[in-house]
Amino acid sequence: MPIKFSKDVSTHLFKYIRTIDIKFNALDARATSAKELIRRMKAPRFSKANSKLKVLVDVNSKPDPPSVLFKMVDESELFFDSREFDIEEMMFKVHLTTMQLDNQFEIDGKDIDEID
Fold first, then answer.
1. What is the pLDDT of residues 82-101, one digit of tens each?
2. Contact 38, 55 (CB under 8 A)
3. Which of 14, 35, 78, 89 counts the most CB atoms within 10 A of its CB?
């Protein structure tokens, strides 16, 4: 069983994400995790914690596989082919990545709330 992140920790870690780019075909059954991610990102706690977070959604009719791209404040990117990840796996990887960023910010003496 993977580590469970509390809502407070999860909300704080989402401050390290600049954009989330979600692309999928609306009729594609493989897009379940991408659709669930959109639903979760509508939670008011995320927009309250990170007003600069942009969730870009491209619902199309292309046969391309569904994809999700997270862009972080340090310009790094985290890409998911959402056919291969369920939402819990995707969120776990995002939490681990943002937790590493949080640790690096603390080591460097930076504060995420002071970043443009």
1. 888 899 999 999 999 999 99
2. yes
3. 14
Q: CB within 8 A of 106, min separation 6: which ones?
A: none
Instruction: Assign 1 a pLDDT band (cuts: 50, 70, 90).
Output: very low
Residue listed under structure tokens 């985290």: 78
Angle, alpha carbons 29-31-33 (nearest 5°): 125
Alpha-carbon distance of 9 to 104, in angstroms, equals 16
pTM: 0.89
Whole-angstrom distance, CA of residue 95 vs CA of residue 17: 10
Domains of the chain: 7-111 (3.40.30.10)
Q: Is 30 exposed, middle or buried (0-12, 13-18, 19+ CB in 10 A)?
A: middle
